[in-house]
Amino acid sequence: MSRVRLLIGTRKGAFILTSDAARRSWQISQPHFPGWELYHLKASPVDPNRIYASQTSGWFGQHIQRSDDGGQTFSPVSNQFSYADAPGTHQWYDGTPHPWEFKRVWHLEPSLTDPDTCYAGVEDAGLFLSTNGGSSWEELPGLRHTESGPHWQPGAGGLCLHTILLDPTNPDRIVIAISAAGAFRSDDAGQTWKPINKGLYSKYIPDPTAEVGHCVHHIAMNPRTPNTLFMQKHWDVMRSDDAGDHWTKISGNLPTDFGFVIDVHTHQPETVYVVPIKSDSEHFPLDGKLQVFRSKSGGNDWEPLTKGLPQKDCYVNILRDAMAVDTLDDCGIYFGTTGGQVYCSPNGGDDWQAITHDLPAVLSVEAQTLA
Amino acid sequence: MQNEGVHTIRVDLPLHLRRLANLPNHETTLDVPVPVTIAAVLDALEATYPMLRGAIRDHITKQRRPFLRFFVCEEDWSHLPTDTPLPDPILTTREPLIILGAIAGG
Q1: All domains of chain A, ordered by start, with CATH?
Q2: Both ends of chain A: CA-CA distance in Å?
Q3: Is there a contact between A60 and B102 if contact means CB atoms under 8 Å apart?
Q4: Which residue of B16, B60, B102 is in closest CB contact with A82?
Q5: Which residues in chain B land under pLDDT 50?
Q6: Range of lowest pLDDT (A89-93, A306-310, B52-56)
Q7: What are the residues whose beta carbons fall under 8 Å from the beta carbon of A60, sequence distance 6 or more?
Q8: Residues of chain B with C-beta less than 8 angstroms from the C-beta of A36
């Protein structure tokens, strides 16, 4: 009998939610690392008991925890993230040069083939790699060394590398995204990188079609179709069918195309989910109605999904890493809110239920489907 | 207590660092070689509990994290050079070196 395990990172700890395949009744763990910010937890796709967790605090800095028993226990591994060389400067909010400084790990992406290999996306933007289960981390400095690096500027949340996508058909291909530099791709396992932002239009930057400087909030990919990428930008929902070389806008009939999360149905690579947020100034759902929008046609035609979601007085946000899908036959969709709710749809978005209303603000959600 | 150039030092840690190091009590004791300074105590602390590396001071620069404070005999030593010798009440375990989080945030 299959089971689902959700790894929830919050402002005040991590929680592990488990259910059988029906996904109607859930068990919620005691908090792991209570009081700490858990930016992200993610399990190895080849060893589901191996979980990496990013634990951070303004007081006590960055720590990485690893579980080898499916999240029952964790042990600290290396938390030393040193840039490979003197990192120089990037642009500060006011346009002046600012020293590159490590602050925290936003996203952990375990390898698709080796449980001891894991990527870490950090603020200030850099990509790190561990090949020994987190015992040490080495930067892949080619990303920071791209010509535009000194001109990258932080978004409101910092200069964070928040998205890492690994291509299951090409082990040398990695796609990442940085706020507010944009999307980048490596085709040589992270040694060299190129910006992949052609087709993005950001009216709030001096050159709206600039090669870099776009505030990409999140990118999603269905592993079956790795050349097709879906992007939630600051404003605009976009897609690419050539691994990011060109993007086209697919916002279509969305009531607002600002938002943070985006994800793709496990079995239907043209079925896409977003949660529209009112605007960059008002980070909550339009009209107080929490609506997931689904497109079954790869964008442009979107339908609101509301059954089981609050349709009045709802003013939460859904942050960029806080949506996930499972791999059961009837694909489950999950998202967490800054109000501490975690919602589940066990049927591709048609019906929703709150697994819990009362966690701390949710930073990230990952789903594991267990045999 | 001094024993062949080594002092036993009491160190009081905040809750989150105790949990990180899996320590059951507020305090831990460490054997620290002379001269006993905050830097030497932190060296001994990090050697005994490697998971605390980077939690109190930077891995490379050894600079104190901004929201942490060092209290010695009811005085704030946070801004003193960390190679300042610690006083007798610390060396004789009458007083602990207190490491605590600054009151900030909500």
Answers
A1: 3-370 (2.130.10.10)
A2: 7
A3: no
A4: B60
A5: none
A6: A89-93
A7: A36, B16, B17, B20, B55, B56, B65, B68, B101
A8: 16
